[in-house]
Amino acid sequence: MDGSVSASGQVAPRPNTRTPAPGLGADASHGAPDDPVWRWATLSPALLMMLLLSVLPLANLFLTSFYSVSWAGGRAVWMPAGFANYVALAHDDLLRAGIVNTLIFAIFAVGGQMLLGFMLALLCVRVNRARTLYRTIFILPILIPGIVVGAIWKLLLNFDFGFVNQIIGLVGFDPVNWLGAKETALASVILVDIWHWTPFCFLLFLAGLESLPLDIYEATKIDGATIWQELIYVTVPMMIPTIVVTFAFRLILAFKVFDEVYLLTGGGPGTSTEVLSFTLYQRFFREDKTGYGAAMSMSIIFLVCILLIFALSARRRAGTAP
Amino acid sequence: MREPITKRGLTRRDALVGLGAIAAGLSGKARIAAAASVVPITIVINQSPWFDSFRKTVELYEKETGNKVELDVNPFAGSLEKQRNSVRAGRGQYDLLIMNGGWFAEMYFGGFIEPINDIDPSFKLDPDVYTLGDTVYFDAARKIMVPTGKLMSVPISPLIPLLYYRGDLYKEAGLKAPETFAELEANAQRFHKPPGRYGIVQRGARGPASVSYDFYPYLFGFGGSIFKNQAASDYSVMLNNEAGLTALQYYLRIAKEAGHPQTASLEQAEVIQNMATGKAAHIMAVVSAWSQMDDPDKSAVVDKVEFAPAPHAPGFSTASGLGHWLGGIAKNIPDDRKRGALEFLRWFQTKDAQLANARFGGIPINAASYRDPMSQERKFRWMKPLADSLQHAVSVYQFPESSEVIAILELGLNQAVARNVEAAPSLNDMAAQIYGVMTKYGYQTAKLPPLR
User: Fold this and answer.
1) Residue A28 resides in a domain
2) Which terminal residue of chain A, N or C, has fewer Cβ atoms less than 10 Å from its own Cβ?
3) What is the pLDDT of residues B76-109, one digit of tens each?
4) Is residue A223 part of a domain?
5) Does residue A19 register a pLDDT over 90?
6) Residue B135 · residue B107 · CB < 8 Å
7) Partner-chain residue, chosen from A73, A268, A288, that has the shortest CB–CB distance to B265
8) A172 and chain B: CB distance < 8 Å anywhere?
């Protein structure tokens, strides 16, 4: 935030203390020749690189989505398909299940991670002893590769031999088929994702909380605010920018979930844990439907772009636009 | 100090030892003669229960011939992806492709495999090598797999499911191995004592080729099929006929009445694990898991598991679906690497190499291995039922779009096993989707009226 809050609640402008970056003197910022050739000459390497790395593959994917590709005599045979691949998306039951499950997954997994991460950050922000130790322990899950997370939880949640069912058995309950029953499979995957990514939210929230100005908290104490009032009227409003950024990050990543689903349930049972990335993998790679897979990819990219636009506009509204 | 051997001092025992050594030397030389010195090759393969035996067999090849082989090992689906990427490139990375029964057609039809006799016109497939539903041949003009077509590959592993059952329990109960589905059902129910032991543990999870592969012996054993006659290019969808319905109803019924409570989530590894830990009285699993049953480090039922051909309905024969592996040589590699890959296949198909393969825990592709005295050893008690079954094994897919059909079956069968859908509507739905796929790709197809 570029300013500080006065006792009356008004934001006072902060003096600009930024200094020009080394090497960017007055000549560099104002004296460069306003010559279009010079401008394009300096910009073109970066533009070319961007074109090569992002725009061209996307353009290729977009073009491919209007073809049907097969193989004969060791060569690809491209048949124009018009919008057929896009039309077929509307009739794909697997894709429909993928969209629904991804939405459920994103809402509950991200919601859970945000809530738990925020609570943990609130608990830890005032703890000064053994800071390094608890932070290391908390961030451990995000350091573990997805494939290892899958292996750990597949073993823990195994119906016959899993540790979780053994514990449940000790207290007299029947074993639960965490990953194999349609009632529990998606919830189990969501719980694993919450375990995996809550530390990410925790870290961002902790950094946000530590950057909040202490004088406001001193003022609320003087005003006799309870802990609850302090949280609702001071901490949460000031944390909104961090909350929005964290939410946007996690939401976009949640839409790309693949490894946990692939390893834990393979999209099953039935379509109960089918998510968008897994549907795409199934159609594009396993079934080798190149054109159709490209159309599905373009649609998913479009969907994520919409999310990104929402997230960016939310950031702007929250005053956190860069 | 050893004294020189005089004519008089040469005993009968010495003579026998000497003859044995000469025989052993000749045998080794014969095998070495079967493979010339060639450039190093790379084989792309998947990690599966039989991989370790294959690796050891490759090491034996390297030791005997001095030729070098690099193995690129991948998960099941990852191996297919790497093969596709390699064969579609201008120049292939892999020389020998280990292709599964579910995707070799894609490689043949796509023109990615070099016919073996185009590399070496003198190469002949050993007459004792299983041709596995003639899937080693391909008639490109007629787009079918028949012996009149070109030789495209050499079998690497003739995998089919066998019935694994607890011999000790059968002995106690005075029973013989089940031959019919009715016997299997009765015995599974008899030994069903959950949660300590399940009568039968089946695969129900959805995967690249999971529940469908487990279901094929039931479908074919009841006289059902997916298509009418692939060899005659008739792809009429027969899945939802009465035989298909009986098969699926049976599969679901034994899962419910004598099976694992969570069949819908079980993968191959878990099915095998249930047998090896003594929690299953029967499983229908790929033959290559045999070595795990007698491994004291992995099994609680050492020497207690017996093997039998998959049961069948009266009037039909045992009929497992082939889940075999074929070795095909990529077209887009230099000629010297093609010859290198062919030398490996030439060596690999011999009886001696296949006996060694079996000793390492693999499944021989050469019928002579099954007639060898070795097959009488207790350890190799799976060999006879396998040999009996192989002659009836069914080549399930002979067209390149099979992965789309497999995906339909995987989802549909998984939903049926999870009891989301009844057998008849499930079969109708799968048949309609398969018909849609075959129509889309222009195959001669038809559909049956829906089951009620």
Assistant:
1) no
2) C
3) 888 999 999 999 999 999 999 999 998 999 999 9
4) yes
5) no
6) no
7) A268
8) no
